[in-house]
Sequence to fold (1053 residues):
Amino acid sequence: MRVDRRTFLQSTAATAAAGMFSSSAWAEDPINVASIHDLSGGLDIYGKPMVDALTLAIEEANAAGGLLGRQIKLINYDTQSNMQLYTQFAQQAALKDKVAVVHGGITSASREVIRPVLGKFKTLYFYNTQYEGGVCDRNQFDTGVTPAQTVEKLVPHAMKKWGKKVYVIAADYNYGQITSQWVKKYVTENGGEVPSIDFFPLDVTNFGPTISKIQAAKPDFVWSALVGGAHISFYRQWAAAGMRKSIPMASTTFAVGNEHIVLSPDECNGMLVCYNYFQDLKNPVNEKFVASFHKRFGADYPNITELAMGTYQGFRLWAEAVKKAGSVDRIKVIDALETGISIDAPSGKVTIDPPTHHCVLDVHIAEVTDKKLKVLEDFAQQKPADTAAVCDLIKNPNDNQQYVIKI
Amino acid sequence: MNGRALNLLGLGLVAVIGIAFLVLIPRLFELDVVLELTVYMIMAILALSLALIWGYGGILCFGQSAFFGLGAYTYAIAVFNIGESTIPLLLAIVLPAAFAALLGYFMFYGRISDVYLGVITLTVTLILFNSVNSTAGPEFRIGSARLGGFNGIPGIPPLNFPGNKASPIDLEGMFYLATISLLATYFGLRLLLASRFGRIIVGIRENERRAELLGYDPRAYKLATFTIGGALAGFAGCLFANWGNFVSPTIFGLAQSAQIIIWVIVGGRGTLIGPIVGCIGIQWLTTALGANQPSGGPDWWAKIFANAPLILGIILIAFVLLVPKGLVPTLGDLGQWLLSSRGKRAKTRLEPKRAEEG
Amino acid sequence: MDLVALLAIQVLYAIASLALISVGLAIIFGMMRVINLAHGEFLMLGGYAAIVATNNGVNIWLSMLVVAPIVVGLIGVVVERTIIRFLYGRMIDTMLATWGLSLFLVGLTTAIFGNTTVGISAPLGSFQIGAYRTSAYTLFVIAVAAVVLAAIFAVMRWTRLGLIARGTMQNANMAAALGVNPPRVYAITFGVGAALSGLAGAVLAPVSGVFPTIGVAYVAKSFITVIGGGAAILTGTVSASALFGTINQIATFVTTPVFGEVALLGAAIVLIRLLPQGITGRFFRRGL
Fold:
């Protein structure tokens, strides 16, 4: 029992101290913000741009005078694509660094490792990756897109262009499984059919037999929800078999790991993707952002990814809420975020949706064209309809789980 | 001071340090340090399980993670279905042990030895990895536990005091449990190795043919050793699932299996304290390399010094070249060299027993 | 009928790629008893060597077939001279050292190339078998594997180098007594093994892509193939690749890639249980 009391005292002391620090007497103490991402190992291709974007966001905020008159200090953890380190670093961030907020987690698995730890130790958590949807937790905010926001738009667009028979291939984990069900739902609703959904573990590199199976099924186009470095070999083998020109492809995972740069134009031109952010979006906020990003990290930076923008926007939303709350106290910041905080981000207007803690944001369909993503169509202010169907944190603030959304 | 007294002195020292550690750490350090040390203690039990079967039993096992992962998954699945944690804990020991016994029977009674043992055990853990990794679909569930594939099983309920579901063991309680378990494992193994059984398995490691001609059945002894190792690894897995409330298929992966072997080599094979030290050292180093990264920037400094695999790789290579026997045996040699140069004690008199102590 | 032809090509391809990724390891392990856990990274480096050379204007065939093996072979010799040679006869320590080397190479490659490297796409285009299209490059990989294996056979069987290598492999002390210089043989062997791995990594780069951590995908599979094959380097690799490749590809085609992988691993276990010294411990014992 002694321990419970002590952990309780510690966490309340931390929040009380955080509240105290925000008064001007403690103006010299920086606000700690933790980043917990994979910067080495197999997932670093996703983690590196996210941390770079967070670094830039914090440097910009500090250059503008910090938050509440205090500087912001980034505490940067590299989880080395190792789940055990996610637990350890979340514990350290909450207990040792006593951070005001944690930005981190890439895969859903890593999020589900961090989330309970930060819940237990009362530390605010932002998860900035596009994911399968359904997380309902008052302590967590999700700035990435979910399937209802992108798949819903891309399916009819692609079907209008190419036809009604869609072959789905997906990574064999939570995200791939759920996303492919959404694809099937929207294809059927639009009067099409899905002859087959094939799943591939994340380390599969041999797609020869699959490519033959797809040819035998003769679909109008292929939907890819493949993820990660190993799966890039699918696109290579697909193109090498001469299939790219006869059967086109659409995806809501392609290009998140810069696949369109790693592959040659011959291997992926013409593919359709749908995201919240593209580096080539034409608006003044984005042009300014891209310029400062390139100034900071070099003009040869491969591509500012969807996940990087999610992280940048996540930090900006949090900072906006801190300003509004006048404090970094967790509950006060959550209350401020739940007023529906909104920012003018490089991707357009981004607003927190209070009942789900997800974001209302713009999405765009783009075509892969010679290592660039050419934006074709815009859809303003998409709501996280999937999560909204199961989650209302205003009504049930104590809800704390990831729902499996009935499709 | 003769070898036996030195041996007892060593045991006493470990006991004193262990108890001091157990009592002082939670009083001197913040909770974050306690939590981090908890996982080190758990992994040290895992290291001891391989120290027994490889260091003493001479069984080259590349797949110790199979039993570790089975323990973790067994606990997770059982506790979701049963609720009260006593039976899941026992299952998490019994099931991996039974699996080890089965696999051991398959291997030892098939007269498989040497590097071939390594390949079979590695293959077994990779099969487990591949199988569990492909259970992402909602149709894969055992009772009320969904296996979850790549994503694993989150939110595993913690252990409770036996028989009382309403009183779970808290975070500091986990530290005590893990540390006491580690100490119990260490002294238990010392006892085991000092027994007739222990002497026979070391004898078999040294010369299997000779042991067989003396009337011992090496297959049975290896099987018993392997089963005990599997049980210990399963127990460690159960504690690990408790510590993070989480388990995922990477627990069966190549990186995890290799890591256990690395701990034992770094600490020193043929000792028990060595693998504990090696495990804690490597874990600490990995964590330290990941914490407090310099953030972003295209400059070469960050590229080298914020590069955990690069630095860890250099350290391991340097280690194997500079400390070829492993940490603890080398320190032991150093200590003996100091003793013998001062106390005129012949170095050779202690040398042959070295491998069986520590 | 066209499906059968297609399947036959894919099975041959699976065998060829398995043999290619394993043969370098087989030479290093078979001759020197070094368990090279950095084997996957040698393959990865071969891929990078080919990509960098191609992207800098070297002809793609030249980069894959000449530049990559030379670069990785040289790296292999450097590794042997600086690390491995201190560890002969200490099989377990080579595991630790090469595991460290593997981490080091992954870290170094990430530091130099970052994690977004422009790849090379498979040349040669595609061809039609009945209703199916497939990559012509597949046939090229099969051809390369056949040539490499034939070349190893020729060298081992008919040259003085091969004789020395076989002698050293069978009895290093006796070879030394007869005037052979084992350190030099070991350095050359390690270099050749690395070069073959580099070649394999380069040839497979257009198919599976290259990134710093790709080695993990190769190392366990090639290790299992080599041990499953047993003591004779060439016959062992070929027979184990044939067995595992066929099982893997057919199981994948009939069911899923996961089951294909599990079938391969299961076959390895059964194989070693039945033939505790690998295939060539029992059959083809006079093979090379």
About this structure: The mean pLDDT of chain C is 85. Strands of chain C lie at 126-129, 132-135.
